[in-house]
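Q: What would this chain look like folded?
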Amino acid sequence: MPPRRVITGRSQEPRTRFAQELRQLRLHHKLTFRALGDALGWDWSLFSKMEKGETIGGPEVIQALETYYKVPGLLLALWELALGDPTQFKERYRRYMALEAEAVNLWHHAVSVLPGLLQTEAYARTLLASGGLKGKELEEQVAARIGRRELLSGDQAPQFRTILSETVLRTPLGDLGEWREQLEYLLMLSERPNITIQVMPASEGLYALSSTDVMFLRLADGRTVAWVETFHTGELLTDASAIERLQLGYDHVRDRALSPVQTQKLILKTLEEAQCDPST
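A: My prediction, written as structure tokens:
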């Protein structure tokens, strides 16, 4: 008879399990936080916060820990699971995120800010902080948002199209270096075969969806649902007639928007303008 499988008794929640494994490894090596910090050249308080679940750290520190503990791949895998843990997000988003993960096509329209799937870390932090988040909650939400970008990567990534109001490109971050980084990231993403970015020029005046942020999700079973979002909340629409009205508006916007090539040129022009020192 094969030996009975040992049950660890550790948490099945990704973020909690990640913190537990970090603690087990440190204790197994009989290290204090200070000793671990000295060995890796990181502030020891970071490791304390990671074991308390206050932060999950970044990939650089995870790779350093893996090398030090000689557990290649283990911690990075746990970190990725923790990063994508949907329990990080507010309850109202969880159903939407579950559907988003199943979608084969995504169509998006943005009124004033970039969609989370296209944001850099600095852009996400600035935007979330402007909504009142701070401290631990802010850092957790930034990490969670950045983790969601993986949805658009890999061989099985869905097709994604976003149409941005020109206002999005005309609203820079306060730090020009961070804004240039965001624009460069947009240009890089626009080269991916599964991502299409268009801009609706301000010269077109008012148009359908001019006050509506929306994401359409076409699911594997052929259904389409829509997530309509404001600065403070969002609503998942499943009613076919409501979604059809929104889709008609989206089609009109797409017809009037700049082509993907024209959009790349506009982003590049905006980047070049951001290179200029405003004090000169």
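DSSP finds twelve helices and six strands in the chain.
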